[in-house]
């Protein structure tokens, strides 16, 4: 498996890669991970849960963060050299990715005898690296497409069109949602080269127990990528809910700059104690105690946080986006609303707090959905079938 980040880095794609690798290992597969050594102090090779992890040197390890981030954080954005800084950041980005790509290809070629199939966890530049390695080793390649913009991200790379066409012609694809499947077809990938394979989650032994007195609304997600997570929409919906249910509190788990959201809170005259920024925290206790989980994102592949909340039996509200509309059947195991729609989010929260029995039933149905279709062991078996089908094609 080739992935940009792996444990101990915590991120949606890396988490799914680790969960899948461990479940496949339980099924008898020999798994090798090739990933970035993204910070100093990480071993270049180690065995984690009987899985070989090879970490490839990159410039990020020198600065303990991505080179563009290091440059932009170190030098003031108000500097008269702002344009030069951005150019340098872009050049370092190319250099960092090129070094990793070349070294990862070399490592895959050296491991040729241990490999039957190359599995890449993203559809952008790293997929092209996998394609080159797969061609050199004459191994089939499957690319997990976890976003709707994987091919678009290639536009910032040199020779983007050639890279995109090479990936489409060479790789098989695992699409984690119906929207992503359709997006691949729209981008010219043949349907017989695409397999639907969702993200998965381990089923927790405990279930949400908020039916008595909780009025807490939970948001889980890093909001350091601009407005993609829709936290601004959620905050704007809170005042209307507070008018009817003054005990409401919004708990926000995740990292990011709170400044723009503090401004929205102030503009909407929301009491400061009604919205708490908790930072990066273990989410389990919050899934167990909060009444409602909200995913107001403008775009997702398939949200790990939504999967987790449903697995705990929470009543969930999500925007009708990729992944969420595969997980949620509206008013059966959750509520779906339109993106950017503050009014619909207000109405959804008011309805759930006014109809606790209905909310509890949504949560129970949500957990059953995870049990039926999205437990990690079932997802791993789906990938095992995909691997076998691809190897049979060969």
Structure description:
With 394 residues, the protein is α/β, with parallel strands linked by helices. The chain folds into 2 domains: 12-200 and 376-393, Rossmann fold (3-Layer(aba) Sandwich), CATH 3.40.50.2000; 216-374, 3-Layer(aba) Sandwich (Rossmann fold). Helix content is 47%, strand content 15%. The protein is built from 16 helices and 13 strands. The protein has helices spanning 12-26, 60-63, 67-74, 82-110, 125-137, 150-153, 160-170, 178-186, 231-244, 259-267, 284-289, 304-311, 324-327, 342-354, 356-374, 376-393; strands at residues 32-37, 45-48, 51-57, 118-120, 141-145, 172-175, 194-196, 216-220, 249-253, 275-279, 292-295, 315-319, 335-337.
Which helices and strands, and how do they pair?
Blueprint: H1 12-26, E1 32-37, E2 45-48, E3 51-57, H2 60-63, H3 67-74, H4 82-110, E4 118-120, H5 125-137, E5 141-145, H6 150-153, H7 160-170, E6 172-175, H8 178-186, E7 194-196, E8 216-220, H9 231-244, E9 249-253, H10 259-267, E10 275-279, H11 284-289, E11 292-295, H12 304-311, E12 315-319, H13 324-327, E13 335-337, H14 342-354, H15 356-374, H16 376-393
Parallel strand pairs: 1-3, 4-5, 5-6, 6-7, 8-9, 8-11, 9-10, 11-12, 12-13
Antiparallel strand pairs: 2-3
